[in-house]
Design brief:
It is built from 13 helices and 13 strands. With 378 residues, it is an alpha/beta fold. It folds into 2 domains: 131 residues, Enolase-like, N-terminal domain (Enolase-like, domain 1), CATH 3.30.390; 221 residues, Enolase-like C-terminal domain (TIM Barrel, Alpha-Beta Barrel). It has a 7-stranded parallel sheet. A 4-stranded antiparallel sheet has the order 3-2-1-13. A hairpin with a 2-residue loop joins strand 2 and strand 3. The chain is globular, with a radius of gyration of 20 Å.
């Protein structure tokens, strides 16, 4: 997919802002439990306005090696300084190559690119979805359900989300919390509910026969059962189970996606922009999968309305044919940092229509939850 050229911008400063937001309820995965998020926001300040990006790195290096403290450090000391030579004529599409000498740190790079891209698009009066190649103005909304303390609690939570109108349920699983909870959801809510599971790397190659017992529940997919670096192991598991295998943590780039597909490790891919280094690389992953007939869906990383709006723009591309985790803001936050939070409408969420991400910052609330802010200018 060819992205339309937009005019470069003059970058005057970058602001790194840390905020503290409590989650509506604890969110437990096989990596651990989160009750609040320490979130790093990036603001690109230009001669003609600003743009915002969100770093999806977690509080601790559990989901990946990246975490918010390290992300701020690498941005301040390594990534932002590399933009200095390009600040007078900066194009977000060039940022990946400018930052390429710095190894990994994809979530930090993605946040910086997002802020510049948002500023660039706002200056040009172009909507992000339009720029990325969105083909729809709303997308179906699924919800991710963490590991619960009991089956009764899980039943109540899933029932509540279905009553709210979410059209697909994803259950987090781990050894000891898999067959029973999935079976209960199927028995109570029926075979018609689109249902998938996410293991977040919690299993091993020896668990193929056990995971095959999930086949009877008619799941859409089993997501990332093995560690991210065991692509061959996923290919082996894919031969043991009938349920499609989807990769998440293993997919860190277009190249990684192509490699996994060609090795038979997956038949579905979850694209998270932060994990692959930004929304522009996410489009490249989308295109590579489309060329190979592999459907994709958009994963969530507990984003605020800033990252959530960008995920919506991405999820509206044509090969996102599987319902993703782009849920309403109130799934995670009592108060979002944008003035118009994402809301559920008949099982769907709508793309903001304005320039850039299309969302505006609730500046008073943002200030009230800010824990630190530093501006780097030239």
């Amino acid at each position: 997919m060819s992205l339309e050229t937009i005019a470069p911008i003059t970058l005057e400063a970058i602001e790194l802002r840390r905020i503290a937001l409590p989650l509506v309820s604890p969110f437990r995965t096989s990596f651990g439990t989160e009750t609040a998020r320490d979130i790093l926001l990036v603001r690109a300040i230009t001669a003609h306005g600003e743009g915002w990006g969100e770093c999806v790195a977690g509080n601790d290096p559990l989901y990946s090696s990246e975490y918010v403290e390290a992300a701020e450090h690498v941005l301040r000391h390594h990534l932002i300084p590399r933009l200095a030579a390009h600040r007078s004529c900066l194009d977000a599409h060039e940022i990946a190559s400018i930052l390429e000498p710095v190894k990994d740190h994809r979530m930090a790079k993605g946040a910086l690119e997002a802020a510049v891209l948002d500023a660039q698009l706002r200056g040009a009066g172009v909507n992000l979805g339009e720029h990325l190649g969105a083909v729809r103005d709303r997308v179906p909304s699924g919800v991710s359900v963490g590991i619960m303390n009991s089956l009764d609690e899980l039943e109540r939570v899933v029932g509540g989300y279905l009553a709210d109108g979410y059209v697909r349920i994803k259950l987090k699983i781990e050894p000891g919390w898999d067959l029973e909870p999935v079976g209960m959801v199927r028995r109570v809510f029926g075979p018609h509910v689109p249902l998938q599971v996410d293991a977040n790397t919690a299993y091993t190659r020896d668990d193929g026969a056990h995971l095959a017992r999930l086949d009877e529940f008619g799941l859409l997919l089993i997501e990332q059962p093995l560690p991210e670096d065991d692509v061959t192991g996923h290919a082996l598991i894919a031969r043991e189970v009938r349920t499609p295998i989807c990769l998440d943590e293993s997919i860190v780039s277009r190249h990684a996606a192509i490699d996994a597909i060609e090795r038979g490790a997956c038949s579905i891919i979850n694209i998270k922009a932060g994990r692959v280094g930004g929304y522009l690389e996410a489009v490249a992953v989308h295109d590579a999968c489309a060329e190979r007939g592999v459907p994709v869906w958009c994963g969530g990383m507990l984003e605020t309305g800033i990252g959530r709006a960008m995920n919506l723009a991405l999820a509206a591309l044509p090969n996102f044919t599987i319902t993703g985790d782009v849920s309403a803001s109130d799934r995670f936050w009592k108060h979002d940092v944008v003035t118009s939070p994402v809301r559920l409408d008949a099982g769907h969420v709508h793309l903001p229509s304005g320039a850039g991400t299309g969302v505006e910052i609730d500046r008073d609330f943002l200030q009230s939850v800010t824990t630190s802010a530093v501006t780097i200018s030239w």
